[in-house]
Amino acid sequence: MLHNIGYFCPSFDKDDALNNMCMKINVLIIVLLTTLIEPSLYATLPGGPPGEGGEFPASRFYANFDTTACHYWTLGTNSFVSETSLNLAWNVNCDYIHPFNGRVTSKFGKRRRRMHYGIDIDLETGDKVQVAFEGMVRYAKYNDSYGNLVVVRHPNGLETYYAHLSALHVQAGDYVQAGDIVGLGGNTGRSYGAHLHFEIRFLGIPIDPALVIDFDKMTLRYTDVILNKRKDRIIVENAARYHQVLPGEDIYSISRLYQVQVGELCRLNHMQPDEPVLVDMRIRYQ
Fold first, then answer.
1. Is 91 part of a structural domain of the chain?
2. Same domain, 214 and 268
3. Which residues contact 21 (CB under 8 A, 6 or more apart)?
4. Which one in 1, 9, 60, 251 has a CA-CA gap of 20 to 30 Å to 87?
């Protein structure tokens, strides 16, 4: 197990300040201890075992893929960029599956002087819980608060949480498709009655799931979103942009106006290049 640790050994030169040398040594100690205590944590470090497509999902956002801690952490700062655009679904009929078709019993927000970082959905113990989007299971084990918990990291950078399960049907490293069963509903952990606690996070920051999902219709609100950070929370906005057709315009003039290829305009609007556009028609260009 330790033959790869040499990759992380720090190097020193005569110009290194004492504080910098101490920091490098501390990082090496953390790597050694965590690898000895929990070998699967090795997957959190650069050069760890590859996932789908040779790397872990959303590696452009995340510094690690930690299979031992339920929340994302990093030794450095996160890579959240203001106006971060994410695609949630190309096909709303198959790229998103509602985790469980039950009524919402508790919403995101303050609850009894504590923050409730998810949505609670009513179910019975043993009901099948489905993963919302495709992705890789990052965490699947018991947690004192969440009970049996599954955390899935998705290619777009979101992570979804499925808590208080009575049984786990996946393990860390499994690649799942939207609608796959990740576990059975239950009442484990800090829970009072069977329910599914469902969370959405980005870089460890909680997002109100109701900003992304219409829980009454059990569908996505948007196919593309823009995330903005406001202090300790994330604001979700619809990323779709539209142009209202003016007299004399066609798909080609709109393409030139917004510098978007005709093929992309046709894909976004489910139309053919030779299909006429009518005055006042709304054409999506982003």
1. no
2. no
3. 12
4. 251
What does the pLDDT look like over 96-150, one tens digit per residue? Answer: 999 999 999 999 998 888 899 999 999 999 999 999 999 999 999 999 999 999 9
For 23-51, the pLDDT digits (tens) are 445 444 444 444 444 444 434 433 333 44
The range of the structural domain enclosing residue 16 comes to 2-72
- For the stretch 161-208, pLDDT in tens is 999 999 999 999 999 999 999 999 999 999 999 999 999 999 999 999
**Does the residue 218 lie in any domain?**
yes
Q: What CATH number did the domain enclosing 161 receive? A: 2.70.70.10
Same domain (yes/no): 215, 116: yes
- Indicate whether 82 pLDDT > 90: no
Token pair 């996505």 in the structure block, residue: 220
Is 251 inside a domain boundary?
yes
pTM for the predicted model, two decimal places: 0.71
CA torsion sign for 147, 152, 153, 154 is negative
The answer to whether the CB of 135 falls within 8 A of the CB of 174 is no
Backbone angles phi, psi at 187, to 5 degrees: -145, 35
Q: Within a domain: residue 54?
A: yes
